Amino acid sequence: MQPANHSQIQATTPAEKRALSYSSTIKKLFDEVLDTKMPADRIVANYFREHKKHGSKDRRVIRETLFGLFRWWGWLKQLGSQHDEQTWFKMLSCCALLEQHNWQQFANAWQSFSGFSTEQHQTIADFMTRAYLSIQEANALSVSDRNQLMNQLFADIEFKEQQLVPDWFWDVCPIEDEIQQIKLIEAMSSRPPIWARAQNIDTQVAVKQLQQAGIDASASEYFADALSLGNKSINLNDVALYKQGQVEIQDLASQVIGNTCQPKADEKWWDTCSGAGGKTLQLHSLMLQNASSNLSSSSKAKLTGSIVSSDIRSKALEELKKRAKRANFKGITVARWKSDDLPVDANSFDGVLVDAPCSCTGTWRRNPDMRWIDDRSCVDNKSELQLDILSRSSKAVKTGAHLVYATCSLSPIENEQVVEQFLQHNPNFDLVLSTHPFTQAQQKHITVWPNEANSDGMYVARMLRK
């Protein structure tokens, strides 16, 4: 597919010329995502690496508009083909409105190129007034407010909140209650903050230092070491605490997994699908916290436990080792999966964590493009692999020890159903109750919904080998 042809557009001001240039670039990237089905963040990163002419403001306009288009694509695609010139400018204009972007001069140019009627221009002006008042009163616009705008702008099209995710999502993730559907959509249509963890440093000390560095940092009410770093982009290489290994980026939902594992300072754990090691580092940090809580204030925390991390990707394990070294964490070793055989000894671990490959529907909030470049098969074709990994990994669990299964999927097909199938074939394991950190409910299956604590989505279950 080719970028839209803007030959019919007459740009007369510098702002209009820049708006046209942005439009062409965004269109090229948007089509590339849909054509190649590669993640948008990877395509954007490659583009900026090849086109260093763009300044920080250019990058922000391009990147945030691109992701905004995917965030609202369930509505925007109903306007027609993005390859029609006026339709494309309608999409850009609506995206700027729905996202409330603050580059108004470019949004105005896209609006003027869109062919909107006088009535549609007035509808937009009225919406902008309401949006301004809403911001002034610190009341964020809801998805329903935005839905109302779209239905007013395009009276011949019916827009619904549920359209902001593909139809097949509701089949693999059935939510009968419409109120709960809207709550999930509300979260999916906004960006969560950057979540992080404090390591080897007091959380409040970390918050103070981060704030002094100009970062909108605050402590979480849910976990003692969890940090919110706000919604603004951060260059981590400029953050001293990150370079010293005292702050690690990890979404709050992901942090639920380690806290469900509850590793003790003297235990031996295996992280079977560690990737670059986010949860391995969290497990180690929690072990240190457990060691400290068991000693008097005059004693030094002693860690006698260890963690083995495995993955099929050697590059991911190399990155893990770099992160562990940066944090000065000892007792972490790697054992790559090289075949179907266990890369570790059987019956030898106090805890085994299986963070299985999945559809990643729980991360759609951060990666809205995934909603539209994936299809239902991304959920349906994973459960066999997930059950296989869980079954193999369970052989490393000692009697009386724990097996933890987790995914960043919201679908029971990849979560409860996999665990139930595993238990049917492994009667020597029992599900145990865990505390949902955001609701305090005692549950055997914990699903973290993005709307519960402003995070991604995640699933976790803990089992005990009898």
Percent in strands: 5-15%
CATH second-level architecture of the largest domain: 3-Layer(aba) Sandwich
- What is the name of the CATH superfamily of the largest domain? Vaccinia Virus protein VP39
Low-pLDDT stretches:
1-6
Number of helices: 20
CATH class of the largest domain: Alpha Beta
Radius of gyration: 24 Å
Question: How would you describe this protein?
Answer:
With 466 residues, the chain is an alpha/beta fold. The chain has two domains: 14-164, N-utilizing Substance Protein B Homolog, Chain A (Orthogonal Bundle); 251-465, Rossmann fold, CATH 3.40.50.150. It has helices spanning 14-36, 40-50, 56-71, 73-76, 85-99, 104-113, 118-136, 143-153, 167-172, 178-188, 203-212, 240-243, 252-261, 278-293, 314-326, 370-373, 377-380, 383-393, 416-425, 450-453, and strands spanning 195-198, 218-219, 226-228, 247-249, 268-271, 306-309, 332-334, 349-355, 397-407, 429-432, 434-435, 442-443, 445-448, 458-465. Strands 5, 6, 7, 8, 9, 10, 13 and 14 form an eight-stranded mixed β-sheet that branches. Strands 2-3-1-4 form a four-stranded antiparallel β-sheet. A hairpin with a 6-residue loop joins strand 11 (434-435) and strand 12 (442-443). Helix 2 packs antiparallel against helix 3, helix 13 (252-261) crosses helix 14 and helix 18 packs across helix 19. The model is unreliable at 1-6 (pLDDT under 50).
Protein topology:
Elements: H1 14-36, H2 40-50, H3 56-71, H4 73-76, H5 85-99, H6 104-113, H7 118-136, H8 143-153, H9 167-172, H10 178-188, E1 195-198, H11 203-212, E2 218-219, E3 226-228, H12 240-243, E4 247-249, H13 252-261, E5 268-271, H14 278-293, E6 306-309, H15 314-326, E7 332-334, E8 349-355, H16 370-373, H17 377-380, H18 383-393, E9 397-407, H19 416-425, E10 429-432, E11 434-435, E12 442-443, E13 445-448, H20 450-453, E14 458-465
Parallel strand pairs: 5-6, 5-8, 6-7, 8-9
Antiparallel strand pairs: 1-3, 1-4, 2-3, 9-14, 10-14, 11-12, 13-14
Helix pairs in contact: 1-2, 1-3, 1-6, 2-3, 5-6, 13-14, 18-19
Family: Belongs to the class I-like SAM-binding methyltransferase superfamily. RsmB/NOP family.
Keywords: Methyltransferase, RNA-binding, S-adenosyl-L-methionine, Transferase
InterPro entries: MeTrfase_RsmB-F_NOP2_cat, MeTrfase_RsmB-F_NOP2_dom, RCMT, SAM-dependent_MTases_sf
